[in-house]
Design brief:
This protein is mostly beta strands. The chain folds into three domains: 32-134, Immunoglobulin-like; 141-223, Sandwich (Immunoglobulin-like), CATH 2.60.40.10; 229-337, Immunoglobulin-like, CATH 2.60.40. It has one helix and 30 strands. The longest helix has 7 residues, at 119-125.
């Protein structure tokens, strides 16, 4: 179906050992091809070499299953059309040059049309025509993971299939168009679209179209969910120089620890014991953004730490506690860092 004509040569050799030469038999078949889009109407021309003596012949169409059915019956000057889809235009009606119209074309109308007394004679002796119907490719579906770590590559595939017919006709390969927030990305015509993921990708919607001769409907839009964090860790209210000076027994807080994360990070508050090691400041909570009011204790607290754990690891932020005690020395009240601290 790529060519307008096909030449077939058969060579017959004569005599033993081919010493008497050969004879070539050459026959050229013209490819009568009619192209159409779905919904259009087209005229198809066929020629029958000689009318049958009975004056009866038909026009046959091959269905998708390869079986032929008669769509127009001619008996002398009488023409019987099977459905309103077809209209016979030849005048006189028994002309050997046949023109008929296929209206409101669908994919089911694609394929071979032949003319003859019977289907078998039409296939072996009559001229044929092929109706090529361009259909829209199937509405694409975008495949690929939408959970992607920031600074890594996202790979999206636009999956669509040709619907054009007949199946044995060589249609052009599908090309593709990609859209971000309904704006076309030029020079992206491949089935696969890849790009580096940033945090801002969460605001984008991606879609695609497929094109053969006609353009498909646009796919549903998808979003990328960029994974990152923890970033921008902070404790509020802020402490100057991350130090806090307190009297033993004085209360402090509450504090809030936050970070930029997707998915949300786990937040834990811990305190450093003067004897060493960290202990949970909120032992009954698996994740605690807020640290409630605490009491400074000279025997148990040296530092408060916020620990944030996310998909990219762990980050910490500290508040150093400078705990002061009141000492009476020679009847004079003195303030100094608590002993043993």
């Amino acid at each position: 179906m790529q060519y307008n004509s096909v030449k077939i040569q058969v060579r017959e050799y004569k005599g033993p050992g081919y010493i008497e030469g050969h004879t070539d038999y050459i026959k050229t078949y013209n490819v009568n091809k009619v192209e159409s889009n779905e919904g259009d109407s087209r005229n198809i021309s066929l020629t029958i070499n000689a009318l049958p003596a009975s004056g009866i012949y038909g026009i046959f169409h091959s269905a998708r299953n390869g079986l032929y059915s008669k769509i127009i019956h001619i008996n002398g000057r009488r023409v019987l059309v099977q459905t309103e889809k077809y209209m016979y235009h030849s005048r006189p009606s028994n002309s050997t040059d046949i023109i008929f119209e296929v209206r409101n074309i669908t994919l089911a109308d694609a394929g071979h049309y032949v003319v003859g007394l019977t289907k078998s004679l039409a296939l072996s002796e009559g001229e044929d025509a092929v109706l090529v119907v361009n259909g829209k490719p199937t509405t694409p579906v975008i495949n690929g993971s939408n959970l992607i770590n920031v600074n890594t590559k996202a790979i999206l595939d636009c999956e669509s299939k040709s619907t054009s017919a007949p199946y044995y006709y060589k249609f052009p390969p599908l090309s593709y168009s990609w859209f971000v927030n309904k704006t076309k990305i030029y020079r992206e015509v491949r089935e696969t679209y890849s790009f580096k993921v940033t945090k801002d990708a969460k605001y984008n919607q991606y879609s695609c179209e497929a094109k053969e001769i006609l353009v498909s409907e646009r796919s549903e839009e998808i979003r990328i969910n960029p994974l990152y964090g923890p970033e921008s860790l902070k404790i509020t209210p802020n402490q100057q120089n991350d130090d806090l000076s307190l009297f033993d027994g004085e209360t402090f807080g509450p504090y809030t620890c936050s970070a930029d994360c997707n998915p949300p990070c786990t937040v834990q508050w811990k305190y450093k014991h003067p004897a060493g090691g960290f202990r949970d400041a909120t032992p009954n909570r698996t994740s605690a953004v807020n640290l409630p009011v605490q009491t400074a204790k000279k025997t148990s607290m040296a530092l408060i730490r916020c620990v944030v754990t996310g998909i990219e690891g762990r980050k910490t932020s500290d508040i150093t506690l400078n705990i002061y005690c009141k000492y009476n020395y020679n009847n004079v009240l003195n303030l100094a860092k608590c002993k043993g601290y």
